[in-house]
Write a structure and sequence with these properties.
Layout lengths: L1 H21 L3 H50 L1
Length: about 80
């Protein structure tokens, strides 16, 4: 669920950034630029928050695979 929210925030930031670069006045640029920056930073923060957990899960999966290989080698 959080990955969906992270992706949605990224899409919102891209959408707001497009409006930011098309803005004709400074006030309109601020109106689109600040939400673009906040949404992008929020999506980046969510992604970096889960990075260590994904790494730990990958290491645990590799360790289990190695254990299974060692057990199969002892039995075979």
């Amino acid at each position: 669920m959080l990955f969906i929210v992270q992706f949605a925030l990224f899409l919102v930031s891209v959408w707001a950034a497009i409006h930011f670069f098309r803005a004709e006045t400074e006030l309109e640029a601020l109106r689109w630029g600040l939400p673009a920056a906040v949404a992008f930073l929020a999506s980046l923060t969510m992604k970096l928050t889960f990075w260590p957990q994904m790494h730990i899960n990958r290491l645990e999966r590799q360790l289990k695979r190695m254990e299974l290989l060692l057990v199969a080698k002892k039995e075979g």
